[in-house]
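User: Can you fold this complex?
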Amino acid sequence: MECFSLLRSDVPALIDYLGDFGEVIAPHGKGDVSYSFEVVRDSSDVVLDYTRTLLPLKKMFLPPVEKLMGFSLKNGSYEQEDVIVAPRVFFGVHSYEMQSILRLDHSMLSGSAESNYFKRRQSSRFVGISFEPDEFHFSESVGVVIEEMEGFDLFLNEVDGDFQLYVLTDSGQGMLNGFDKINLTEPEVVEGRHFKKKIRYHYNRLPRVFQYAYHSDVWADVASRCVGCGACTLTCPTCFCFDVQDEVEVTAEDGMRQRSWDSCMLSTFAEVAGGENFREKTINRTRHRLYRKFKYITDEEGLPWCVGCGRCTAFCPAGISLPDIVNELIQEDEKAQYHRTVRV
Amino acid sequence: MKPQVAFFDFTSCEGCQLNKLNFENDLLDILKHIDIVEFREAMDDKADHYDIAFIEGSITSPSCVERIHDIRRRSDILVALGSCAVNGGVNAMKNLHPIDEVRETVYGDDKYLFATLPAMAVSSVVKVDYEVRGCPMTQQDFLKLLIALVLGKQPPTYGSPVCVECKLKENECLYNRGMVCLGPITRGGCDAVCPSFGQFCTGCRGILDNPNIDGMLEVMTSHGISLDEAKKRMLLYNSNEVQL
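Assistant: Here's the predicted assembly.
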């Protein structure tokens, strides 16, 4: 693994250079205080120090709303929508975001692969960047450190304002060929970047905590504050549920089938024919969300299905914090264990 | 034969019907599917029977009650159009005050000449088959319903909050911009049109089923408005739906 030094002022030149290898997509400012991944038009618009984007990078592989096919009622025919994606370079991606894409890969591609996702996921390359954790990031607690480089082709680690550029794959090496603003250097370990938010237990102890947390009082407390808007799941980088609907144009002849992101936090999510709803109450839904992140998939895959980006907490209008819920469950679990011990 | 369609107005601003005439690009396509047989704002003709009757406005007087029963008897399908018809809308704010006080304020000494009732949703008086929500209802929403009815399909219903559409469009949350928005508990389907243009949601499409009202008041007050103001905002379009 080679490591080069790169001046902060030369980063736009690097982004321009990467443009030869495909469309570059990078974080940009959005609104008053937010960020989003957008196609780079001018490399000087790219934001290098951002907290988190509104929507995760997932939106580039599993679009929020996507046309699946068009149909004609008149001819009784349909035509599947072709997904053609040119090579893309994702620049300025945080480690937790990359981890979320790797988890999505598992969700979408194991078993029978989801073909649209697969086509978009092919020929994409990733350039990572380090970040300064804010009050919401807690990825270290779910096993993703700031400098986690798995999945990246290149990685920019900020050192004293400038960057060290790690070359991680042949593909990454290939993208740098001929780029002359970098110098070979010794990798440095950066001290002093700390996560302010933490889950108290190592993540491999969480499935056991969740094993006994199903009837916890914590869920009712969360449900009393939750207004059910779905922001947590709709901004989650590892959530992948979608809804499929058909729409007919005003001519009543042609129409299309499209899918859009859905959310298990919405009361309609588990509504079935006959008006039954198998997760009718908010308390059922808040619990289900966390079990999807720390128990159900984790039991099978051995990894938490949460990457600690902090979006669900940062974008919750009610200020409900996922790591706080987990810590409350841990505290309750400890209390229960204490009583068990005393009795023995 | 094409379905015979009629439009009627009750207590309302008539904006929901009027914007049918603004369809422009789609108007000719629409008229391929339906015959409009009664529409006071656009024509003089009358009919005895309607396949689909669209009702705008809330029911606010004994004569309204009589008329809506008459329309219902002569209609196969009856659709409530817009916030006033669906749940009483802004008109229902009067229900928060004693009815005599309201009459006195509006008609003064002549109040005995005008019989009045609390502002009611059309569905409080007669059976409503379908509804198009919003103040005003959006053209898109109306067209989706109309096409579904023409094709004999179930029209779409919306059970998700406005926040969902906002998130799918990657809008910055208005709470992050210092505004207080009713999006989390308001029925979506509007494509989050207001928040997308920087205007907080005022709840015109009605409150979701089983809302967490206390939680929502907490969210609103914790973002800088008084409890009184929070309640007023919630009641603006939903006096008939929310008990505070």
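Residues 4-150 of chain B form a domain with the Rossmann fold fold (CATH 3.40.50.700). The beta strands of chain B are 4-9, 35-39, 50-56, 75-81, 130-132.
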